[in-house]
Amino acid sequence: MSPLTSLPQKPWIWAWIGAILMWLIIMSVSGIVAGGQVMSAAASFGTFFVIVAIGQMFVITLGPGNVDLSIPACITLSATLAMKFMNGDPNLLLPGFLISLSVGLVIGTLNFLLILLLRIPPIIATLSASFLYQSTAIWSNRGLRVKPPEVLGDFAVSKILGVPILTIVVLILSVAMAFTLHRTRFGLSVLAVGQNQKAAKLAGIRVERVRFLTYLMYAVLAAICGFFLAGFSGGAALNMGEQYLLMSIAVVVIGGTSVAGGDANLTGLWGASLFIFLLVSMLNTLGLSAGYRLIVTGAIIVGIIAISGRKSAI
Amino acid sequence: MTRLLSPNLLRTLLPGLSLAALLLAIFYLQPRTMSYFGLNLLLNLAVPIALATIAQMFILCVNDLDLSLGAFISLTACITATWLNTTPLLGVLALLACIVAYGALGALIHLRNLPSIVVTLGMSFVWTGIAVLVLPTPGGAAPGWIRTLMTLKPALVPFPIIALVVIGLVVHVGLMRSAAGVVLRGAGGNAKSVARAGWSLLRVKVTMFSLAGLFGVLSGMALVGLTTSADANIALRYTLLSIAGGILGGGEFVGGRVSPIGAVIGAITLALAGSFLSFLRLNPDWQIGAQGAILILVLALRLLISAREVRR
After folding, report:
1. How do the domains of chain B map onto residue ranges?
2. Which of A257, A278, B165, B245 is at 20 to 30 A from B177, Cα to Cα?
């Protein structure tokens, strides 16, 4: 089969078709120039969806029951602690970033320890733990918006030839992660565990270690997302992580990754991220009020999942 | 003695013991709570949380998880504070439609074999969207009869206690002691064998989701009865609270293992966690954290009990 005829069977193709369709509608309503601006904005916002979704994709690929619900708390805590530490001082940028990274490492480790030691489903473990992270964030944030150092803010919104730098960085990260997933021992182990944990174990894969690394990676990615998101949106706020729980899961599923585990792809993540952002922009362009926007967004997400209706277990 | 404290018994008693420990600690810290008025204040908000937890329990029972429950309860609260108050007929119809929509969701999830987490996450947008349309700015008013019911002052026993006991017992009898309840729970335990025995799994799912919708509606109504007004985000916290409450109360994540009385107890425990902290004069910022800590603690205790079971 030639690459072109096999295209409709690729699980990620629908997300891209949807994204392009949304973009065409936006351009037909508000013109080509606006279309270009919207695409640039989509690339910026989509970037943050993609960083988190990459991690969630690896976690979901581990198989039924594997979903991390502590992500909003992780994003908020990482951003809050780092911004508070730097307190707008550009010289502290690197240590601030290291604080974000350590927040990710600690949260990932704690999450996995709970899963391993309490032998409870990851959903429940990450849910209970997220209460603790969230409280820590509330306690240290005190409802203030801590401004990022100017350098970080500038970096997060800067562009080369109209393309946001962060987008380029995350594109490179995506390629690296696609390579990790399909070509390295770790990535293939994740897929194998997701397809059949028992078989993977018998084949000599150290299942617990693979799961640990996956949860660790996800928390670190979320922490990094929090760091740059705070730079991008002018500071750390308590609700900054909220929408990323739904978005990370929706992007992964719409992108064609199997919710039953063992089958993942990164191409779809970008398509789905752009699709969701463009969908919301399109509804804005059409002048719908907030209520209708939410209803249509939700209905379309559910509709896509219902139509693509893949075998699932959670 | 060993027989008296069998792991199974311990596991059943664990939710109740955790609640008793928490209550004793609160009574010790603030003896004035040990009065009619004190208990009323302490347990008031536990009523809508308990109803939400029961709703989540129905979903957990068929191995699904509802991440839209908080948004749904916010919506029903908005409808209660607006339409049900001004045009009761429209309000009743709207709330009935909410229940039917929940049943339809169950059918969709079953027929297309969809992941409930993703579907309900998507639906949470829809519920919030409708809630924003129904009540664009915080406000509304509680219908008089709900307000009267929620602020009843019966002799001797405070109203929240009566309400919580009734909720727990009614669901317990319906789900744990009736023939239909066995089939409903069986579908969570072993769907295939229930299907082979001639029961329709579709009907089971639709029933469970409709029941969840019904209790979601009741939770929204009870909440408005206490707060007297609503807004589109009023109950968003209930999603996580209801899952935590269900698990605290001895519900398992898979296999149709649930406990209605346990769920009510779990909900009360979570509702009391906040008061406990304030009596300790701890920073209220840690309230959510305390709920998480209690949840982890109880799960750890449960594991210890199971470990004992294995060793024997």
Report:
1. 36-304
2. B245
